[in-house]
Amino acid sequence: MKTTAPPVLGLRHNLAQFILLVAVNALVGGTLGQERTVLPLLATREFHLDLYTSALTYILAFGVSKAAMNYFAGTLSDRLGRKPVLVAGWLVAIPVPLMLIVGPQWGWIVAANVLLGISQGLTWSTTVVMKMDLVGPRQRGLAMGFNEAAGYLGVAVTALATGWIAAQYGLRPGPFLLGAAYIALGLGLSVLTVRETHHHARLEAAQHVSARATAHGGLTTGEVFRLTSFTDRSLSSVSQAGMVNNLNDGLAWGLFPVLFASAGLSLGQIGVLAAVYPAVWGAGQLVTGAASDRYGRKWLIAGGMVVQAVALGMVAAGHGFGIWLAAAVLLGAGTAMVYPTLLAAIGDVAHPAWRARSVGIYRLWRDGGFAVGALLSGVLADLYGLPTAIAAVAVLTALSGVVVAVRMRGTDHAAA
């Protein structure tokens, strides 16, 4: 009778599954990237939406549905296991490319983004938790760096590719056929080759020695929500920074292509700018995730928010491809400092018994930033113009960095 080998924590012992999950998350990011260049232009050129607030409804729908599903993904993965939640996320994504291709009214596009948000909440959240499960506490920042690098390099490559496809063949259907291929491949890999990792989390929980975290090992979901959102200084600081980070990412997704097009940039140039920001963001996380393991989380997060604010100010004040390219590089660098570090900081503080729920709650707040960003930037752009909207978000981003500097405790991989 064949016996299953007991789980072992660590990157080296779980390298094959870790690399597989990195590849799966690249496909998750690519599924999102099919929209980054094309959809803002589709709103204005094919659906003739004049108000920025109306055009950004798809980001609002995406942000609300993804944020809500992030919350449930953590709870479901604790109850049902990680793999079923991952597979369910891919199944939800299947209709999305078809709806984007054939949708005759803007409501179809909004509905497709509700499904895309649900899918991204399930798939991306689960790949985060599964990598945390596999590597254990010592290499958590490195693991999150690889996870988020894969996802956002997937976004970047696909944004660049869809910009080229749209320039050659039109805004529909070509760019979204690439997204359909990603979904088919991601579903196949998840069903056939990904293995369950929940038992790794149970092993880490059994080995957990932090007195503070062990005392809170049996928390209810409501108690975890309060800790993550409000009462724990580190967890709540991370949650607000994540929300503001994705607020400005929603602004970049929805309004940057429109700003660039209004300045006379070509579709190819817009595609490059839409790709450079997530490309630098993605690649940079390979360095910043590991650096946060070595040097701590707090000042990478606070500094990254300030760098993002400077980049947004450059976009608001600048004009032309050169200055906007420099700003996109800087915005990507600042986001790379923040993104994997926030996730690793959650893993530092949260007990393994409720870590998946805490990650889900953090991602609820973080991806709620898409919805807040769509509303705030859309209203400000309609009232005062695009540069003012971008400048206002730059100020908000800088203030978020100050909150982290003042409120968050210093953490590293040992400070659970």
Automatic annotation (TrEMBL):
It is found in: Cell membrane. Its main location: membrane. GO terms for molecular function: transmembrane transporter activity. Residues 9-409 form the Major facilitator superfamily (MFS) profile domain. Keywords: Cell membrane, Membrane, Transmembrane, Transmembrane helix, Transport. GO terms for cellular component: plasma membrane. Gene3D superfamilies: MFS general substrate transporter like domains (1.20.1250.20). It is a multi-pass membrane protein. The chain crosses the membrane at residues 12-32, 52-73, 85-102, 108-129, 150-170, 176-194, 299-317, 323-343, 387-406. PANTHER family: INTEGRAL MEMBRANE TRANSPORT PROTEIN, RESISTANCE PROTEIN MDTM, PUTATIVE-RELATED-RELATED. This is MFS transporter. It comes from Sinomonas atrocyanea. The lineage of its organism: Bacteria, Bacillati, Actinomycetota, Actinomycetes, Micrococcales.
